[in-house]
Amino acid sequence: MLKFFYKYIVLKFPRLVLALLIMGMFYMGYQATRLEIDASAETLVLEDDKDLRISREINDRYETQDFLFITLTPKADLLDTSTLNDIRDLKTELEKLKWVESVTTILDVPLLESPPKPVKEMLKHVPTLETPGVDMGLAKNELLNSPIYRNLLVSPDFKTTAMQVNLYEDKAWNDFIKRRYRLREKQKDGSITPKETAELARLQVDFKFHRDRVRAKQHDNIEQVREVLEHHRDKGELFLGGVSMIADDLVTFIKDDLRYFGLGVLAFLIITLWVIFRQKRWIVLPVITCFFSVLTTSGLLGMFGWEVTVISSNFISLQIIITMAITIHLIVKYRELITANPEASQHELVLESVLSMATPCLFMVLTTVAGFCSLLLSNMLPVINFGWMMSAGIFVTLFLTFLIFPAVLILLPKEQPNMSFETRFRLTRFLANITERSGRGIIVASTVLLAVCVVGMLQLMVENSFISYFKESTEIYQGMKVIDQQLGGTTPLDIVLRFDEQGGGEPPAPQADASAADSPEDPEEEAAGDDFEEFDEFEAEFEAAKGKAQYWFTSYKMAQVERVHDYLEQIPEIGKIMSLGTMLKVGKTLNDGEPLDNFKLALIYNELPERFRKIILDPFVSVENNEVRYSIRVVDSDPNLRRDKLLKDIRHDLINKLELDEKNFNISGIMVLYNNMLQSLFSSQILTLG
Description:
alpha+beta; 27 helices; four-stranded antiparallel β-sheet; five-stranded antiparallel β-sheet
């Protein structure tokens, strides 16, 4: 059947075959324009990762919004008038952008210790750097030493500051994510109805459309932010960071990889082909085959809506390599035949080359596809899709190569091969002689090498720094390095601590709390000599707004909060920690070194101005859910960082050293999701090898 196909169709009507292929290429070229790139965070997490669900719940509860991060190292002093004016101007320009909700800078944060004031006075008027007459010396000291701001808002050398550009929340995006997750859970457990299955399919299409529209807007917004920064670069060193910016730049990087890496591989192979074969036909024919194969595969991916990710961005270069390998097999076979049978016709030579190599190339393709199909054992959807993409691409390569090679070659005149390379290149003969004379030595050396490799494999660690993915010349690397080493770390980690009945979940009776407050044993009241007279004017407001907060702040809970905070602070790989514990430490300063009592904590929680609450309280306390959140940043570039071990050690110590019930805390965040991905990739490699 195969012989009939080639003898009476391909070799008899080569021009018709090529015309059909060219027509198909135009269609596939159109479909290839629909090929899209996905560099979202979802491509770097596991399918059905329970930690992803927990992370989303925490982000929703604490209203964690997307933001861009700007670092500024001014030429002048950080608190110099010119620097503050430039920060003010930069903030004003950024806030005019359509997608920017607000900008937080050193000008906006509350100065709670400049100078320290009683709680009552502080709540009346919370100063900032914009407040007339603020003491700049005290402000600098607070920014450098406050548990809230040090290593977060300013660097330890007081030369660099950070600005947070808060972006408007995309409620439609969050709604899509929640609905899709709910339907996928039903699909997974088999409880999904036909109507819900159709809804999920529609949702996927709608979500993709919305994502592409938002991505285009985000790109425009990031470009606008960069334009604003460009106008201020003469005032100092500026870097832009943030998840949105990284995802947007990754799309650009992937496009460049698809374009330049594929062309680079092709150019290298063309040079190699010329060095080996020294004939134009053996350069042009493989290039044509590679072009048709890559274009067809790209068209198929665009047609079926498969998207290129960071993981699959090298599919073009891989396909060029595989296509070139199959084509070279056919070229070498043809050259062997024409050298052995110089009198044979071109028709006989082409037919014999194709038929004799069909079975070996099929086996080669099948084994290669089997290797890529092993990627389907991964838990990461981008890795699974990469396996499918390459498997489909390799079959496309086999089909097109065995059509294009005979159809083009039959139209060319017979030409004796240039064998100069084989005459000069002695490496294969040299290796053959070694194999022939030293068989036992090769086996012994291979056995020793295998043992060394096994020992090396056992030393492998699942570890990789995200910052090392990028060249030092990129803005992503430079910005992340500044944030990582000067501003408290880059990789977010969240710990949520819940309180049970034992931890004071039930509010005590109001009378009991008041009685405790009036107790002469209270050290602060003994020193002050009054019964909270300084709070009398707040009583009416507080009683109206107190809600559950008045009884939520108990000594037991605050002790737990501080214990966990202090434990986390002593871990070397952790940079900055923000939590209610941070506020408790500041409270001691405001209260003459004494811990704030429950009443004062509740008063601050209720009476602190909303714009300041959003910065120092709301992201870390949820009275309604009876829990607190620790927002942690891990130093990604720390050479001693072992992510999996760090997470396991934290979990172990929270349970065994701090005696927390495992059900009362969650560890989540990008750090956990990234580690899950690394662990999954490692196990996937083992399964793939198997």
